[in-house]
Amino acid sequence: MKRLLFATSEARPLIKTGGLADVSGALPAALRGLGVDCRLLLPGYPAVLEGLAGAGEVARLDLPGHPAARLLLGAMPGSGVPVYVLDAPDYYVRPGGPYQDTHGIDHADNAARFGLLSRVAALLCEVGSPLDWRPDILHCNDWQTGLAPAWLHYAGRPVPTVMTIHNLAFQGVFPPAWVNRLGLPPDSFGIDGLEYYDSLSFLKAGLYYADHLSTVSPTYAEEIQREPLGMGMQGLLAARAATLTGILNGIDDTDWNPAADPHLPCAYTATDLAGKGHCKAALQADLNLAAAPDTPLFGVVSRLTHQKGLDWIIQVAPGIVDRGGQLAILGTGDKAVEAAVRGLVARYPGRVAATIGYDEGLSHRIEAGADIFLMPSRFEPCGLNQMYSLRYGTVPVVHATGGLRDTVDDGVTGFVFDVTSAHGLWLAIERALAAYADRTTWQRIMRAGMARDFSWERSAREYLGLYERTLAG
Ligand code: ADP
Hints:
Blueprint: E1 3-7, H1 19-33, E2 37-43, H2 46-51, E3 56-61, E4 69-75, E5 82-87, H3 89-92, H4 110-123, E6 137-141, H5 147-154, E7 161-165, E8 173-174, H6 177-181, E9 195-196, E10 199-201, H7 202-209, E11 212-215, H8 218-223, H9 234-239, E12 244-246, H10 274-286, E13 297-301, H11 310-322, E14 326-331, H12 335-347, E15 352-356, H13 360-369, E16 372-375, H14 385-391, E17 395-399, H15 402-407, E18 415-417, H16 422-436, H17 439-450, H18 456-472
Parallel strand pairs: 1-2, 1-6, 2-5, 6-7, 7-11, 11-12, 13-14, 13-16, 14-15, 16-17, 17-18
Antiparallel strand pairs: 3-4, 4-5, 8-10, 9-10
The structure holds adenosine-5'-diphosphate.
Adenosine-5'-diphosphate binds next to strand 14 and helix 13.
């Protein structure tokens, strides 16, 4: 396996709306570190054109049903990963984000915009590609590149494809007229093809036609084969179970390293934990929590939503305070949840602190200064914060779902609860508090978490294995 085209609609540090951008920023670089000639294909949004100002034209494209476009070749800032930019200003240069306008409304021509991205991803794998560089395998990500495996199917499958689900909630569903407008054969619109409840679904197309499927944790790969997490795709995913793999995301271990984190007042390591105590004291002072080195301090950094189990956290908060604990919350989200969080602060001054907003520095200081990290998500495809917590020696209490189940070992590196309720969370908190009371036990759990490997290199090796299996057919 030498050449890989990684087609994506966002990649850090150029353009990010969600976890897909983190994966697209980190995985190709890690794969190149393993000797794979991995290159990105990314739409030319304004931020991408600005970030890759030196990119030069390598091809002109004139595809039926789309405006004339160009391919530019640049290098990703930081990692130097080669990026093919699909420069189609009519489609991608406009105000707002990659998918929505400045009012948060989906761009009306998203089917055309990502139809072109998918078409070009496939074209670069075909004999008729305008480039000399042709990949051995195509890796598609989420619905925005979902039509590429369909195009390759109709081109005689010149290379195999892997399709990764980062967010199953977004399925790229459009009226059936788009099948014709995008130039796809009419007979592709059927249950064995692009059709999804009488509409066209880009994601369904990818899930149906790709040679291999993956998602971002082994447990989530199982969960999406059933209701409710299958979100309508469970039948197809269950039918394709033999070709569906879960691979955990990595974390950026340069950004998230307690031994060298510029956001922290004090550095620490697993062998020298003294600095963590200083981080806790500084956090308590910073958030107007009572100065109390031995009080268990619970941290939460999260979108404040139902998915993340914030209602359960609000229900257990009085119990935490009753037990002498403190709670520090950082997040934004649903207005009702924000109001409930503010209510806790008013009720328990000096015991509960909340910052409503997005604050990267504070997120690092909570990860470092807290003793216990709460992440009771109802579902969690992979999740990052529990991995940051483990690396920072902040023992996670998590719900047994998706990537949380796959990254936290109950009683070894953290506490995992199965019972899907606030009471389930509370019982796990009680177990955590009992362990916290014994210093030797607690340090053993902290150090076990800090020793875990969540590097991108580990993930990249798993992807490499998946590509090799896919190529072997
Ligand atoms: P999701 O992508 O579902 O929100 P993850 O755990 O996968 O959940 O990733 C969340 C990311 O966003 C983490 O990097 C986390 O630190 C960060 N984050 C979430 N809310 C905030 C906030 N209010 N301030 C700073 N960082 C935040």
